[in-house]
Amino acid sequence: MKNFSNTYIFIFSIVMVVVVALLLSLAAMQLKPFQDKNIEIEKKQNILASIRIKSTVKDAVDLYAKYITDSYVINNKGEKQEGVAFDVDLKKELGKPASERVLPVFIGTLDDQTNAFVMPLRGKGLWGPIWGYISLQPDLNTVYGAIFDHQGETPGLGAEISTEWFQKPFFGKKIFKDSTEFVSVKVLKGGAKKDDPHAVDAISGGTITSKSLEAMLDSCLIQYKPYFIQTRHK
Amino acid sequence: MSIFSSKNFKLLANPLNLENPVTVQILGICSALAVTTKLKPAIVMGLSVIVVTAFSNLVISAMRNSIPPRIRIIVQLVVVASMVILVDQLLRAFVYDVSKQLSVYVGLIITNCIIMGRLEAFAMGNKPWPSFIDGVGNGIGYAIILMVVAFIRELFGSGAILGFQVVPQSFYDAGYINNGMMIMPTMALVLVGVIIWIQRSFNKELIEKD
């Protein structure tokens, strides 16, 4: 085997790293627009799903334009702020102090011309982040639809939050008691009572994810409380 | 040497059976368990591994005389890692849903023993073209096992093939239930075991003497 000098090894490594870095950054830059488009479509599909409209990758953009008729950002006092709701990165916002956050609201107009108010959610699951969208009926109390997703919850257990059987029971639940006291929707281990308007069944074996989801609903929605109450009285 | 001499053909064909990376060399089991609940991700994963093994073999083999032996593992890792990142970026740009299902496993191709194994054992000592074929062969050997496992798991676990329902509704009405066990990684391991068993009963030379 040939003997290589140290100088050669150093030069070889440096050249190799520079070439690889150039190549990869070029590829990343060229592909970025396509990747961003995919992420945008996925977000639109999620928002549509939260107002119970099924979409595919192909028709998501059109359906979004049709059904999501308005969107704006508010602060935690319920006042409208400057900004585009679709571009808000909830992860970044949740890292800020509560009073500096901007909170997106999407307003969907359904086929029967009633409105649905969509709020994004984000929290910590067992293994990684969990997130979702929840939509409320015009009374800003009753849940119209909900969708949850996760990065790496346990398949068959915590990962079930992204399935329909878990999400459906949220429909029709109420987040306010006596329409003024915010109680959110609880995710109960051992099962919720059938007529309980503020709770759904947790997932057997997925207790930590279920509890995290409950905490996510509570912490994200409570920020909207002033907005809900003001809007309701309009 | 012609492009497809018998020697080159062997490089392509051997890893499919007698030197199969998964069932004979028992490499790359981790991802074989993780991405085989559905057929589509398994196919994409198989293709990704074929691309990565083939091109890293090609690049390393072309550079083999100028790679200082003392840092050869690092050089191999850099090449494999860049290939994997490229593949990952392409998947994210063009087959986003599959790339989400594969999640971390695309990145983990870097640690797939098949690739480093082929670089060390073959590409460092052979010309680029045979190395490329060797990479394709080993990639296909891996992909075939993944697809067989995924086919069985999706069929019995979800009653579908490539997302299309193949078990008719009348079966379910008659009391047929999808096998939940098939969704769990355990069954993938059992299936790989069964494949090894079948393969060995056809190829007696693979059976250990003692």
Notes on the protein architecture:
Chain A is 37% helix and 22% strand. With 234 residues, chain A is an alpha+beta fold. Chain A has one domain. In chain A, a hairpin with a 5-residue loop joins strand 1 and strand 2. The termini of chain A are far apart. The relative contact order of chain A is 0.11. The model of chain A has no long low-confidence stretch (mean pLDDT 89). With 210 residues, chain B is mainly α. Chain B has one domain. Chain B has ten helices and two strands. Chain B has a two-stranded antiparallel ribbon with strand order 1-2. The longest helix of chain B is centred in the last third of the chain and has 31 residues. The mean pLDDT of chain B is 87. The interface between A and B is medium-sized, with 26 and 26 residues.
Keywords:
heterodimer; A: 234 residues; alpha+beta; 6-stranded antiparallel sheet; two-stranded antiparallel ribbon; 10 strands; 37% helix; globular; B: 210 residues; mainly alpha
> Gap between N and C termini of chain B, in Å?
40 Å
Average of per-residue pLDDT values of chain A: 89
Work out the helicity level of chain A.
Answer: 25-40%
Q: How many strand segments of chain A? A: 10
Count of helical segments of chain B? 10
> Low-confidence spans of chain A: pLDDT under 50, at least 5 residues?
none
Q: In one word, what is the shape of chain A?
A: globular
The poorly predicted ranges of chain B are: none
SSE order of chain B, as H and E? HHHHHHHHEEHH
The quaternary structure here is heterodimer
What is the radius of gyration of chain B computed over CA atoms, rounded to a whole number of angstroms? Answer: 19 Å
Number of domains of chain A: 1
Largest interface between protein chains, with number of residues from each side? A-B, 26 and 26 residues
Strand content of chain B: under 5%
Q: In order across it, which strands form the biggest sheet of chain A?
A: 2-1-3-4-5-6
Give the N-terminus to C-terminus distance of chain A in angstroms.
83 Å
Q: Into which percentage range does the β-strand content of chain A fall?
A: 15-25%
Biggest beta sheet attributes of chain B: 2 strands, antiparallel
Question: How many structural domains can be distinguished in the coordinates of chain B?
Answer: 1
Structural class of chain A: alpha+beta
